């Protein structure tokens, strides 16, 4: 067993850390958090210049096809600097490149993968509906009907990350009403500027500079060739594509935890009370020790899941555990990081309050921690405890 990064991987990490230090300074991230609902174009351009989007595209479409493990190593640094930016960049790559790369036709791959690789097309994924996200099969009611050589979409989606800034929405709809939901879903590529689309902001406490929005589709017409994958086969196709999303979300928790731990560790040494640094108080050391242990655990699980994925081995168990441990660890780190900083922990002047706010959304997105535990025991052979 070798738990270390290779020289190349260490270089990837260092380069992204250097990039983030320069382009995602604390001041700039705080400014974005208060002023924008998506990373500005000039920042997108800088990510484009370092080839971040290209890195994930298959080589035959002009990309570098780097491994999931390598991508997570560089992604952790972005997550540490700003989870909102990581989400914005990750949604386009994780949803756009994966759905089209895995399920797209040759024509779709030729048309869209180079655009994604050049960072010229932003994509999001619209699955969740107002009636519920955990029980999405029971809730989904957005329909796509084939009429006169077009698909016509009607319905409503909610919490769709980055949809307001996207060029295309990967949208999951029912295409057959008289079959089981799992055998009646199809996936579509919907141009975001299509007539009949209305976007509604959802103000929330977390990830201010990457909004998740509501979308209404009212008789939205798209060409028949915008079906991705097979008609009515979308549910099972989508599940295979979405598995690595849990690894990506786990790494967000790891990045948040690392940032909160480092800030709290440093603060505890600088802040004085009763004639010395507060870092000498055992209870605060215990808070830090718990954060440090959670971070190590979450990182190990996350990188193990990424490694298994690259080896073509089953990784759903590890990815689910990683997301759970990392999201809970991130919330704990924000909570106790703020505790260590006293009143300053909740002041906008310091990023600790942002880590705490951002960590909340990882508890139930993309899958809730309760549902994750249901699944873990189902994977272990216990009876399915839901439905
Ligand atoms: C900020 C944010 C960004 C998001 N981005 C996207 C996106 O880009 N695209 C997209 O499609 N979706 C997105 N989502 C949706 C996300 O996937 C859902 O919020 C998630 O699936 C939970 O669904 P829900 O919020 O409807 O909660 P519900 O499903 O209503 O769950 C409510 C509670 O009931 C619990 N529960 C439900 N069923 C069970 C059960 N069987 N056993 C135990 N407990 C259960 C849940 O764990 C939870 O605690 C996002 C959500 C948020 C908040």
TrEMBL record:
**Which segment of the chain is annotated as a signal peptide?**
none
Every copy of the Acyl-CoA oxidase/dehydrogenase middle domain together lies at 124-220
Query: Where do the Acyl-CoA dehydrogenase/oxidase C-terminal domain residues begin and end?
Result: 232-363
Q: What is this protein called?
A: Acyl-CoA dehydrogenase
Q: Which SUPFAM superfamilies match?
A: Acyl-CoA dehydrogenase C-terminal domain-like, Acyl-CoA dehydrogenase NM domain-like
Quaternary structure, per UniProt, is: Homotetramer.
Name the source's superkingdom: Bacteria
Q: Show the InterPro entries listed in the entry.
A: Acyl-CoA_DH_CS, Acyl-CoA_Oxase/DH_mid-dom, Acyl-CoA_Oxase/DH_mid-dom_sf, AcylCo_DH-like_C, AcylCo_DH/oxidase_C, AcylCoA_DH/ox_N, AcylCoA_DH/ox_N_sf, AcylCoA_DH/oxidase_NM_dom_sf
Q: Which Gene3D superfamilies match?
A: Acyl-CoA dehydrogenase/oxidase, N-terminal domain, Butyryl-CoA Dehydrogenase, subunit A, domain 2, Butyryl-CoA Dehydrogenase, subunit A, domain 3
Taxonomic lineage from the root = Bacteria, Pseudomonadati, Thermodesulfobacteriota, Desulfobacteria, Desulfobacterales
Among PROSITE patterns, the record links this protein to: ACYL_COA_DH_1, ACYL_COA_DH_2
Q: Which family does the entry's similarity section mention?
A: Belongs to the acyl-CoA dehydrogenase family.
Query: Is Manganese among the key words of this record?
Result: no
What are the protein's UniProt keywords?
FAD, Flavoprotein, Oxidoreductase
Record GO terms (molecular function): acyl-CoA dehydrogenase activity; flavin adenine dinucleotide binding
**Cofactor(s) needed by this chain:** FAD
Domain Acyl-CoA dehydrogenase/oxidase N-terminal stretches: 6-119
């Amino acid at each position: 067993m070798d738990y270390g990064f290779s020289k190349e991987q260490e270089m990837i990490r260092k380069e992204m850390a250097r990039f983030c230090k320069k382009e995602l300074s604390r001041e700039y991230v705080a400014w974005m958090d208060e002023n924008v609902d998506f990373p500005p174009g000039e920042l997108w351009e800088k990510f484009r210049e370092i080839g971040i989007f290209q890195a994930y595209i298959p080589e035959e479409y002009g990309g570098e096809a780097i491994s999931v493990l390598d991508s997570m190593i560089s992604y952790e640094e972005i997550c540490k600097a700003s989870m909102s930016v990581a989400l914005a960049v990750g949604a386009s790559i994780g949803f756009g490149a994966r759905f089209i790369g895995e399920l797209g036709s040759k024509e779709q791959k030729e048309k869209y993968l180079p655009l994604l690789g050049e960072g010229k097309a932003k994509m999001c994924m619209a699955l969740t509906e107002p009636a519920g996200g955990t029980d999405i099969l029971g809730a989904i009611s957005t329909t796509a009907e084939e009429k006169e050589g077009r698909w016509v979409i009607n319905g409503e989606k909610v919490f769709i990350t980055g949809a307001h800034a996207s060029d295309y929405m990967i949208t999951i709809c029912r295409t057959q009403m008289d079959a089981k939901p799992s055998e009646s879903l199809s996936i579509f590529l919907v141009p975001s500027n299509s007539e009949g689309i209305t976007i509604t902001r959802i103000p929330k406490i977390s990830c201010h500079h990457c909004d998740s929005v509501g979308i209404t589709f009212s008789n939205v017409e798209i060409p028949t060739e915008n079906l991705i994958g097979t008609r009515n086969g979308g549910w099972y196709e989508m599940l295979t594509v979405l598995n690595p999303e849990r690894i990506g979300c786990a790494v967000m928790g790891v990045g948040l935890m690392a940032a909160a731990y480092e800030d709290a560790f440093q603060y505890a040494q600088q802040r004085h009370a009763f004639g010395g640094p507060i870092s000498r108080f055992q209870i605060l050391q215990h808070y830090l020790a718990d954060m440090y242990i959670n971070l190590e655990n979450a990182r190990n699980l996350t990188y193990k899941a990424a490694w298994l994925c690259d080896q073509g081995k089953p990784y759903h168990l590890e990815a689910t555990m990683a997301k759970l441990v990392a999201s809970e660890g991130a919330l704990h780190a924000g909570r106790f990081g703020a505790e260590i900083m006293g009143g300053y922990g909740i002041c906008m002047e310091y990023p600790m309050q942002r880590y705490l706010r951002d960590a909340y959304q990882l508890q139930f997105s993309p899958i809730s921690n309760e549902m994750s535990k249901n699944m873990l025991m189902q994977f272990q052979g216990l009876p399915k405890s839901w439905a």
